[in-house]
Specification:
Largest sheet: 4 strands, mixed
CATH class of the domain at 274-397: Mainly Beta
Keywords: Membrane, Transmembrane, Transmembrane helix
Number of helices: 14
Order of helices and strands: HEEHHHHHHHHHHHEEEEEHEEEEHEE
CATH architecture of the domain at 274-397: Beta Barrel
Strand order of the largest sheet: 4-5-6-11
Structural class: alpha+beta
Organism: Endozoicomonas gorgoniicola
Protein name: Retroviral-like aspartic protease family protein
Strand content: 15-25%
InterPro entries: Aspartic_peptidase_AS (IPR001969), Peptidase_aspartic_dom_sf (IPR021109), Retropepsin-like_bacterial (IPR034122), TPR-like_helical_dom_sf (IPR011990)
Number of strands: 13
Shape: elongated
């Protein structure tokens, strides 16, 4: 019995030893084992990517026969090269969610890839990426540069406007404004030569709404309106420009052609709607009266929305029941924003016309020989023409 047990144990040990040797040889000789096989002996097999983002696996990988995946960064760059932008974006966003350390190499790869591209492909990639990363300053700047390089100036301007919309640095906003100003003049001249100004209507409406004080936008917009056959809108823009240092004289000449003044019987006499002005250093001053026949000198300012008058005059009018305080506002002045009470005048006499129930702001502004500003809440009630050669303001009721 003892001998039988010994023999049984011996046979079992031999079987176990043999099995171990066979298993070790098999693992050692398999391509994925620790043998001396080289990388070249097992070429990679290319698997096509799945572009269906709704599948359980957002993208497929390129993998070798030994099932070891290659780097995702290679897949990312390959997707960019092959214009599979959505696939590249999926990888990019996945590693962004993993954290900065995992994401940083992909960002460097994208920047490097873009540095070596000078084609429509790079614009396609930037357009798609900035749809998701719409506040990425670097990507938006690159996109604007590529648009400008391809002479797509309107698209470059639109991209820079998006960039400016979230920039909180005054220095950067100033630099962006200068570049937008330059590009806007270039695209205007470009489309004017092609007789295609109408194509710029939406762009310059947006530019003018964002920076109303930049005279070129309003002048360009007036010419675009004229090209589109909308003379009324053109006149509105030109009226505001009549006191502008660069475009004022040209605007006045265009207005004279668009809205000719009524004929005069005698050249020496001024028509009832024409008011003489005084001029100082390119600025025009008009005399008006505020219901009590007391004349006040106001500087014509088409950039001011509200008419302003000095506090002592408004207090006198208030005591005579010719004005009442109705509220307050913040006025933007050369020294910054300033609190200003709002008064409602019973009457303002300007030339032979009377403007009733006019709101004016209290502001002590004594400069260039004026006591306040005549703003667009008065001028906007008329069709007006400023003749800089004769120093007159001609008003036509709307």
């Amino acid at each position: 019995m003892k001998k039988l047990i010994i023999i049984h144990s011996l046979v079992l040990s031999i079987l176990m030893l043999t099995t171990g040797m066979i298993a070790g040889w098999w693992l050692h000789s398999w391509p994925g084992g620790s043998g001396n096989e080289t990388f070249e002996n097992h070429p990679y097999q290319i698997i096509q990517w799945d572009s269906d983002l709704s599948s359980t696996t957002p993208y497929q990988t390129m993998q070798p026969y030994n099932d070891q995946p290659i780097g995702e960064r290679s897949l990312f760059l390959q997707a960019l090269d092959e214009n599979r932008i959505d696939d590249a974006l999926v990888i990019y966003q996945q590693y962004e969610r993993n954290g900065a350390s995992d994401f940083r190499p992909f960002r460097r790869d994208l920047e490097d890839w873009l540095n070596h591209q000078d084609s429509d492909l790079s614009i396609n990639v930037l357009e798609r990426f900035t749809q998701h990363y719409y506040q990425d300053e670097s990507l938006l700047t690159r996109l604007a540069n590529r648009y400008e390089h391809q002479d797509r100036l309107d698209s470059a301007i639109t991209t820079l406007l998006e960039l400016k919309s979230f920039t909180d640095s005054n220095k950067k906003r100033s630099a962006l404004n200068e570049r937008i100003h330059s590009l806007s003049r270039a695209v205007y001249n470009q489309q004017m030569k092609l007789d295609q100004l109408v194509t710029l209507l939406e762009l310059f409406q947006r530019l003018s709404s964002q920076e109303a004080n930049y005279g070129f936008y309003r002048f360009a917009l007036s010419q675009i309106y004229l090209a589109a056959g909308d003379s009324n809108s053109a006149i509105r823009e030109l009226e505001v420009l009549q006191t502008h240092s660069e475009f004022g004289r040209q605007a006045a000449q265009l207005l004279a052609a668009l809205t000719p003044p009524p004929p005069m019987d005698e050249p020496e006499e001024l028509p009832a709607s024409t008011i003489p002005l005084s001029s100082q250093n390119g600025h025009f001053i008009i005399g008006v009266s505020a219901g009590n026949k007391e004349t006040v000198k106001l500087l014509i300012d088409t950039g001011a929305s509200l008419t302003t008058m000095p506090s002592d005059l408004l207090q006198r009018l208030r005591r005579k029941k010719l004005a009442a305080r109705v509220g307050h506002t913040q006025l933007k002045t050369a020294g910054g924003y300033q609190f200003a009470p709002i008064y409602q005048l019973k009457e303002l006499h300007i030339g032979n016309f009377i403007v009733r129930n006019l709101q004016v702001a209290e502001l002590d502004l004594y400069e260039l020989g004026s006591e306040g500003l005549l703003g667009m809440n008065v001028l906007g009630q008329f069709r007006f023409h400023l003749d800089q050669d004769r120093n007159t303001l001609t008003l036509h009721p709307r």
